[in-house]
Amino acid sequence: MAILAQDREQPMRLSLKTVATAVGVLTLVRLFVAAHTGLVADEAYYTVWSEQLAPGYLDHPPAVAVMIAIGRVLAGNSPLGVRFVAVLMSLALSGLIWRTGEVLFDRRTALTAVLWYNAAPVAGLDFITTPDPPSALFWMAGIWAVAEFMGSGQRAWWLLAGIATGLGLASKYTLAFLPIGLLLFLVVDRERRRWLLYWQVWAAVLLALLVFSPVIWWNATHDWASFLFQGRRTSGAAGLDFFANLADFILGQAGYMTPVMLGFAVAGAVLYVRAPRGSDRAGLALPLLTALPALAYFCYHTLHAQVDANWLIPLWPPLSLVAAYAVTALMDRRPALGSLATTLQVGLGLAAMLLIYVQAFFNPLPLGPFDPTSQIRDWVAVDARLVDLARAHQARWVATSRDYGLTGEIASYMLFAGSPLPVRQIDERPRWAFLPPLDPEALGWPALFVEPASNPTPPETLFGRVEKLETITRAGVTGYFANLAVYLVSEPKPAFFAGLNEPFESWLAKS
């Protein structure tokens, strides 16, 4: 009853019922969009993973494949099945933001954070199934567990934080920054340093490693392939592009979260620095200091390479609490400005979200090869045509080259249609080591060789017999993904086998 009374004292826009309704409506919208738009290239690639579950893959840990496999069981072999669990995770993430905000601050801050985060463009894209939804969920779950410990003093919450960190590491290697951030959170404060004496804190580390151990084992038995593949991004010489990279980094975050949330997150950091010791400072310290090592590293990364905007997605659910704290502090002093900030955040975020959805469904803007939604279009028709061509020319399998996204799209929509045609990329074998090798007898069968017409691999270098069949154009699309050249091929040459069996080290060196 006390909670309900507290809720009634808040403005209607911040009531629990209103915010929960908004989150529910946005979740239904995401489900609709998830069901009625095609897969992006990475999603299709991960869908192939879900057909062959393993403790690890070259590009990422296995959580995304497990998500898709579960979703396909629950919602069928379809784009909705691929995305179903990701949408549920976004709903759970909102619950964790709300509960963490209530424990660290108050209900108004918690509900503001949930509202702001769900209105951000990044939340509108949460249905796209990549390693980002589980990594964001488990990063937030780790923060939530530590917040519960801070609120209750029950040390067992650290064990849950360890499990969440391990699951996060099994989602995306970015989660390695979370335990570093938690250590920073502990050591900067005299009182919190005493928590390092609790055995539960160190047991949490062991639990995280235990949960993550299958991924470590997979890497140990596969020449550390995934660690090396991702680790190469951390190297590189400083260059003159630093300022361009840094600007791209900042603009990417502003685009994902809106400039309003980014600005208030910075304001919240300033409030933390200026705040006296107390519960609010401790509450701000948890989301801020745990994010600081990752932020510092990605700023360093701009010295030698671009930082993709999605790399920081796990940091933003807790940082939304920092932004919400800053705007509620503004509301206390200048209510009109605080309300204006919320209106701008929700309005800008929903407008950006709507623009993305309209472009995905109707393609009104002629963006050509710069259209991020071009990946999702017309794959059902493409695969139907490939099946017709295979039947007409007695091709028994589909071959691709140098394009894991194209391979994934064709293979995924073949799966959705129930087609028996196997799809294999005939090079970049380290990416596809999880798939069973082709039946040696299949190498004597004719195949359809499919590749983007704008980025050709001369099929004559790979096959002794080559016949150009046609060029398939995906409707309504221009640019790289539009035209697909289709050949009937057979009699593989030595170059074909060289690509099929290339060692990981030589492939990594030139990839």
Describe the strand arrangement of the main beta sheet, using strand numbers. Answer: 2-1-3-5-4
Distance between the termini: 61 Å
Radius of gyration: 25 Å
| Oligomeric composition of the shown chains | single chain
Largest pleated sheet: 5 strands, mixed
Give the overall form.
globular
Number of strands: 5
Keywords:
five-stranded mixed sheet, 2 domains, alpha/beta
Sum this structure up briefly:
The chain has helices spanning 2-8, 16-36, 41-51, 63-75, 79-104, 107-119, 121-124, 132-152, 157-169, 177-187, 190-193, 199-220, 225-231, 242-257, 259-274, 279-301, 316-333, 335-362, 379-393, 404-417, 494-500, 504-510; strands spanning 397-400, 423-425, 447-452, 463-473, 483-492.
Overview of this structure, please?
- The chain has about 500 residues and is α/β, with parallel strands linked by helices.
- It folds into 2 domains: about 1-360, no CATH class; about 375-510, no CATH class.
- It is about 60% helix and about 5% strand.
- The chain is built from 22 helices and 5 strands.
- The chain has a 5-stranded mixed sheet.
- Helix 20 (about 405-415) links the parallel strand 1 (about 395-400) and strand 2 (about 425).
- The model is unreliable at about 1-10 (pLDDT under 50).
